[in-house]
Design brief:
Rossmann fold, 44% helix, 3 domains, membrane, 13% strand, alpha/beta, Bact_transf, 3-stranded antiparallel sheet, transmembrane, transferase
């Protein structure tokens, strides 16, 4: 952290550029950040190889269909050229036209995968149209397997590429955008905290250019150097940045943001605007341009309707099937608990649920029977803040219970709560009912059913502070969707296997 005590006041540098048009190719060639070029080249190779491999697999599986043709007199050389060269090239061109290689969508968020799926639909429609218009007799099984296999393999290749990119960003900070934040100091620090929460996002603030005067920042600790009174583009070049992030009110002066965009044309520096609209997911935000003024329209959270009905149906079906499949595991865990410590197998505790209704949560017992009596003597050793008590080495937990907690198997009986409609598979974790009503922002967690897993669990679990856990829960409440639930369930598998933050 740095203390802002003084600034080197410099006269504003005249802009090096005033908006002379440049071609898209010239701007691309001058772009400061170039990490995406080898990454996109790797994706091109992976996508082409995935489409070719899918064609080869389909031909091998349905070789009896005369290599895809029902008429043996067709030239097999032409067929293999189409299967292993033209069709994979068609995939790559279609992906490119759907902007699946756009660097803005690579490495974070679901937009990249959505564009791959759009490209898959386009390729399937194109192949069907060409086959129909040319009256080509094709094996439907071969073509269907090749197209479906290519889509699946391309998605898997994108996941592998994204995993590799995230590892590089976390380990050494490479393949990232170096940002200069412009705005008032509080606004810039808020944006700094938001973009640095997830190193995999690849956004690395390297400097802050304040607009609210020197006195407002004097003596305040900052994580990066603070500048003032300089030309922003010159500052970006000085600190080696490639992106300018305009924070909050810095873009409120009429014409200022437009002039900055003109100044950056042809410089290779990206311009992004970070409005004071935090913890709202992209699908809820839409731009409505009115007479040249881009208005951000924020939709209300979806807390009812068909999507919620589908979520409830998915919860009940998955819980019922899960309980049937896990009966042998439940019996084995019950025996291990009774051997470790005589007493009940299950632990039931009042928790606050949907709309403030209280219910009793089901869990496998992991502590000795006198755990509640011993709690008072351990309160001063609590390692978390907020409403929960957590200790990494809690003496009240017996050995088998420690394993159950580390593997999260103690949570499995909550499938009973899901089946009864008291909980959901995904949602904010249910909190104890000891303190009665929740106050302030915490109460908003009660707008949805509590979940067995949730966003805070896949983001750090017990290692997070109380404020951060509440922020994640509120983010989920405001932005949940079925696709988001499936994403959290998938991430839960990795978190459970890694035993991260579980104790």
């Amino acid at each position: 952290m740095r203390h802002v005590d003084s600034f080197e006041i410099q006269p504003p540098t005249p802009p090096s550029h005033n908006g002379v048009p440049r071609s898209a190719w010239a701007r691309s060639s001058r772009r400061v950040s170039r990490w995406h070029r080898p990454y996109i080249f790797l994706l091109l190779l992976l996508d082409f190889g995935a489409a070719a491999l899918a064609s080869w697999t389909a031909i091998q599986l349905f070789d009896q269909a005369a290599s895809g043709f029902t008429e043996a007199e067709h030239d097999p050389t032409w067929f293999y050229t189409v299967s292993y060269l033209l069709l994979p090239l068609g995939w790559v061109v279609t992906l490119w036209s759907n902007r699946a290689y756009d660097r803005r969508y690579l490495g974070l968020g679901p937009e990249e995968f959505k564009r791959v799926m759009r490209a898959a639909v386009t390729v399937a429609a194109s192949v069907s149209f060409l086959a129909f218009s040319t009256v080509t007799q094709l094996s439907r099984f071969t073509v269907g397997t090749a197209l479906l296999g290519a889509a699946i393999l391309i998605l898997l290749g994108r996941m592998l590429g994204r995993f590799t990119l995230h590892m590089v960003r976390r380990r050494n900070g490479h393949a990232a955008h170096r940002m200069v934040l412009v705005g008032t100091l509080p606004e810039c620090l808020e944006v700094y905290a938001a973009v640095t929460r997830n190193p995999a996002a690849g956004l690395v603030p390297v400097a802050i250019h304040i607009t609210d005067g020197y006195a407002a920042a004097r003596g305040i600790e900052t994580p990066v150097p603070v500048y003032a009174g300089q030309d922003v583009l010159a500052l970006v070049r000085e600190v080696g940045g490639d992106t300018i992030a305009v924070c909050g009110s810095a873009s409120s002066e009429p014409g200022e943001l437009r002039r900055l965009a003109w100044q950056l044309e042809g410089s290779g520096v990206d311009l992004v605007v970070a409005p004071q609209l935090t913890d709202i997911a992209g699908p809820r935000v839409h731009i409505r341009p009115i007479e040249g003024l881009p208005l951000l329209h924020v939709e209300e959270p979806t807390l009812s309707g068909p999507a919620l009905l589908m979520k409830n149906l998915m919860d009940r079906v998955a819980a019922g099937l899960g309980l049937l499949v896990l009966v042998p595991a439940f019996l084995a865990i019950a025996v291990a608990i009774r051997i470790s410590d005589p007493g009940p197998v299950f632990f039931r505790q009042p928790r606050v649920g949907h709309e403030g209704r209280t219910f009793r949560v089901w869990k496998f017992r992991t502590m000795y029977v006198d755990a509640e009596d011993r709690l008072a003597s351990l309160v001063d050793q609590n390692e978390t803040d907020g409403m929960l008590f957590k200790m990494k080495q809690d003496p009240r937990v017996f050995p088998v219970g420690r394993f159950l907690r580390a593997s999260s198997m103690d949570e499995l009986p909550q499938l009973i709560n899901v089946l009864w409609g008291e909980m959901s598979l995904v949602g904010p974790r249910p909190l104890p009912a000891d303190d009665g009503d929740f106050l302030g922002d915490v109460r908003r967690r009660l707008l949805v059913r509590p979940g067995i897993t949730g966003l805070w669990q896949v983001s750090g679990r017990s290692d997070l502070s109380w404020d951060e856990a509440v922020r994640l829960d509120l983010y989920y409440v405001d932005n949940w969707s079925l696709a988001y639930d499936l994403s959290i369930l998938w991430r839960t598998v990795g978190v459970v296997l890694a035993r991260k933050g579980a104790y």
